[in-house]
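Dear colleagues,

As part of the handover before I leave the project, I'm documenting each prediction I ran so the next person doesn't have to rerun anything. This entry is a single chain, and its sequence is reproduced below.
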Amino acid sequence: MKTGTVKFFNESKGYGFITDDTTKEDFFVHVTGLNGGQIQQNDRVEFETQEGRKGVNAVNVKKV
């Protein structure tokens, strides 16, 4: 599992971005990629990555 920080998340639109702690790369996250619960800006999270339609997405995202 990777760890990171939620850079931005728009609840009404259901998407945002997570910045990876190690690589500082930003990953797109959709509400369908959350593993229970909600996330907000600046939350610390664990996640996995998976190839999506438009690039690599964060999936299985959960707060730590």
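The first strand starts at residue 2 and ends at 10. The chain has one domain: 2-63.

All the best with the project,
I.
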